[in-house]
Amino acid sequence: MLTQLLTGRLSIEYFISFIIALTLAMTIHEFAHNYIGYRMGDPNPQRTGRLTLNPLVHIYWPGWLMFIILGFGILGFAPIDWRRMPIENRRWRWLAAVAAGPLSNLLLALIIALILRIIGVGNLVEISRFVVTLLIVIVSVNVLLFVFNLLPLFPIDGWQIVWTLLPPDLAYTWDRYKEYTQYAFFGLLLLSFLPGGVIPNVFGLLIGQPVDFLTNLLLGF
After folding, report:
1. d(CA 152, CA 149)
2. C-alpha–C-alpha distance, residues 198 and 111, integer Å
3. What is the predicted pLDDT for the residue at 152?
4. Residue 64 in contact with residue 73, Cβ under 8 Å?
5. CA distances from 43 to 34, 37, 180 (A)
6. Predicted structure pTM score
7. What mean pLDDT is predicted for residues 69-76?
8. What are the structural domain ranges in the chain?
9. Cα–Cα distance between 143 and 109 in angstroms, integer?
10. What are phi and psi of 76, to 5 degrees?
């Protein structure tokens, strides 16, 4: 069922669904970063007006257009900084703020998938095929952002999560080599654009398979 609904990836129906899902996922992700960062003691999200669900506040247009065209891009950003947080439990405050982004995407995917399971895809298809496509794409896109942002490569959230969880000495070493993880990230990204069979698509293995597995698991397909 999932494959049948999403095979027409170039259709207007899918394209509109993808734009809506991407906007929603990005907004929730960046709002979660800003809100939890503010709750953890960083005043900047409030000062810069980031405590809102208005997507125009969070969107980063160059990265947004890049994502639409190439399938990758920095959709938005959150101006939070661990150095502005109270020194007490600062590590865990920062971890909460960083992890809030991907976890919010997972939570949204769970909620939408639960709605689909309760109402039933078949019942929704009779009402509107577009609504079913939209809800499934919302689940898929949010799972994608959740998995992608767990990669331990700078500047992705996953790098910050690892940095926060490491003991101080290892965290220092991890920080020293962050540029190398950034090079690895862009290298893997470029390799993913090579024709199939030239070299294994590492991103496809690291992201594509887990995304497909989690999406199908949540939706029960």
Report:
1. 8
2. 39
3. 92
4. yes
5. 10, 8, 31
6. 0.88
7. 74
8. 2-219
9. 6
10. -160, -175
